Amino acid sequence: MNPILLWLLVPGPILFGLLALFCPGWRSRGTVAWLAGLTTAAAGIVLAGSWGNALTYELPAVLGPVSIILELAVMVWIVGIAWKIRSTSVAIPGLLQLGFGVATVVLARQGGGHEAAPGKLLADPLAMLLVLVISIIGSLIVIYAIGYMRNHDAHAPATAASNNRFFFVLIAFLGLMNGLVLCDDLRWLAIFWECTTLCSFFLIGHDGTPEACNNAKRALLLNTWGGVAMAGAGCWLAYRGQAETLTQVMAGGLLLPVALLSFAALVKSAQMPFQSWLLGAMVAPTPVSALLHSSTMVKAGSYLVLRLVPAFGPTQLAAVLAIAGGFTFAVTSAIAISQSNAKKVLAYSTIANLGLIVACAGLNTPLAYAAALMLLVFHAVSKSVLFLAVGAIEQGIGSRHIEDMSGILRKMPLTASFAALGMVSMMMPPFGMLAAKWMAIESAVNSPLVLMLIIIGSALTVFFWSKWIGRITTISYHPSYAIEKLRLTMLAGMAVITVGVLLSGGCCMWFYKAACRPMAEAVFSADLIQSQWTLLESASQTVLWPIFAVVLVLLFALLGPFNRLRKEQVRLPFMCGENVTDARFTFEFRSLKDLPETAQVTSYYFSPILGELAISSWANPVAALILATLFGVLA
Amino acid sequence: MTIPWDKMAIGAAALLCAPLLGALLQGLDRKLTARIQGRQGPPVVQPFYDFFKLLGKEQLLLNRMQVLYAWLHLAFMAITLMLLVLGQDSLMLLFVLAFSTLSLVLGGMCVRSPYSRIGSQREILLMVAYEPVLILMVVGFYLVNHSFSIACVWQADQPLLLRLPLLFLALLAVAAIKLQKSPFDLATSHHAHQEIIKGITIEYSGPALAVLELAHFYETALVMVLLALFWATNWWIGAGIALGAYLLLVIVDNACARLTTAWMFKFMWTVILGLALTNIVWLYLSK
Questions:
Q1: In this structure, are A297 and A164 located in the same domain?
Q2: Alpha-carbon Rg of chain A, whole angstroms?
Q3: What is the value of ipTM here, to two decimals?
Q4: Contact, A565 vs B64, CB < 8 A?
Q5: A329 and A181 in one domain?
Q6: Which residue of A has its CA nearest to B195?
Q7: Which single residue of A58, A140, A569, B66 has CA 20 to 30 Å from A390?
Q8: Are A573 and B149 an interchain contact pair (Cβ–Cβ within 8 Å)?
Q9: SS3 string of A476-543?
């Protein structure tokens, strides 16, 4: 692997971040962010250019001892933060993790040999796919953030941290994530894992309000428990005298480290009962939510679960993981129905889709694996544009409530179209998300319980998306439309990702054939592939682009009637003949005593049954029990 | 790549014949309903008259989005029917069908009309209620034929009904929803006499309403073919079953009152989903 490429992908963004730390103003900060985004994205694309052959890179020997020092330093830093924010609850997992870290070093030294191995980097197709997602989508979010944070500055609370620190963490995040997916050594994995936890702690707490601090603390607390599991896995490997690498975990046949790493992954991807940290993350400025939900942080969890798939084999562990993921998918989709806060709906939908990825990984079949890969990529694309659009809408109309978004198609036609397209791409054919869900259901057909959970979850998903799309496209007749003014960087970020969304609609089956299926076939044994051959093949032969073509043709064909519609053809809605008909053309009707009253209908939310508290009060314990089973089946 | 002329011919024939079939069935429905209610009723070809009359009217609208959604509804309903007669993947067929229904829902939601908004939301609820049953039906197809492709159902040597009797019963309830029959005609109905008047389609008129009517002709034909699939070994028996089921639904429509959404949801997710699941469990156990 080319070392220059590695420099650009991993230390590169971190160095750009450091540069951003010393920027005097917006002009230089913007330049640094643009440069960082463009170089990282370019490096990611170049790396993916050598698709098909796994690249490795042996790290120089000096990095061996350095990695030990770094790992312990990060762990000490977390304990230090716990001290600084006076939080015993964070200190406990922090100290535990530190204990495991020290124990690992000691055990490895006793075992002799590889205690200071520098490790190697491994860029196989899975890592390359992740690098592509991180460096392209992540970079676009960073670019969007330039404009967003300038607007945010105007009404940010006085407690907010400096923009320099914000951009430092935001840009460095990309490098750390790239490192996380490229390293094979568990010690490096733990370093990057903890660093991304710290990044999200700083980003969530950016505004410095009591709520932000509290939610940042919760994110740190839960993710540090995930870190404890990961450190525990390293410790166990060292105790058994095995090398601490992912390759070793896969080959070694030890199930405890696999279970511990899966646990860490579940925490990071905010699966039930750990979902609260990701929900709390929405207090941060929107680019942070977009980054955490789409290309970084939570995707680290999905990545690790997918990385571990070869280690599952035909174990009960995988079956339990599939049920845990399916359960999260079904339950969080239900909760999403009860939410009227746009960012919360998006957050629950993220958790649900990550649950589906975990379920697919647990199903442990080639088609499910391919479905998980498609979900990972297309979810990142669609969810990032949704967050960015919601952020722009929030700055535009001053509200993030879905009920306030009717008429948005006139006030902000461009942003509203991006958002509507993003939502459509989450659930309708021919977009990639739906294709992936379709494969997930087909591959779950031999695991009845998981199948039922996925079916219920998919049905519920339709509900919250469609009522939101209905709200956004609500509009009254207007002779003409004016495009809203957005900052160039915000527009650029959203527009480029929207092109990606459209591509995901046109090329999702091609992506399956070219990337996902070969990757799945490389992971599974020949007879497992043979047993699923008809399913894999029928997915390959599916063509979805005609659906796309029909929609496009219809859109163009209807442009004529659209423009021909005259004001005389426009009527008021039916209100039992009691419309207030005057020159104002309103939606009022004559109520009691002939007083005018505006007709309004809000959406269904079913809060008493599907509200957060109503559901999580029983679903969190159930999810915890399922996770307990994860370790129970090891015995 | 050779052009599959035979498939294209079948597709074109289905595209032309399905609305005729759907309209005739709806005419039959109106006749039968009238007779049950002691009326003479319109001629069986009345749906055609209605359709062409609507086409000739001036287009009145509330906004521009309405027309787009109406056409999307029609286009995807027709595509669903094509996928069905051409023997494509059954699960993808359900998703395209869902897209079509969603277009209808969004058409009702994009206007500031209380009645049509309530109708739309009820339609989504209906969708959420019946979608799991339909997916289980497809899973049933897979467990019997070891393939998701509908072509395998066409070629099966044993009628599906013998292996999936409970799923067929569950499908009857779904058919009642899709054909807008009581007790499930919550979102809209053929008779503008419910508490939300015409519900989801109330703000459509003239040619745009004609588009929706045409889509419903397709939908009726689609439901018929789905029902007939359960006896695909002999087309006469299959058609007989589908027609019998249709007449049964018309009679139930006249005999039942419309019930609440909450009742509908509970009924679908307990009794009907339970029926479907029981059938699936049978298949798993008998494998």
A1: yes
A2: 25
A3: 0.91
A4: yes
A5: no
A6: A576
A7: B66
A8: no
A9: CCCCCCCCCCCCHHHHHHHHHHHHHHHHHHHHHHHHHHHHHHHHHHHHCCHHHHHHCHHHHHHHHHCC
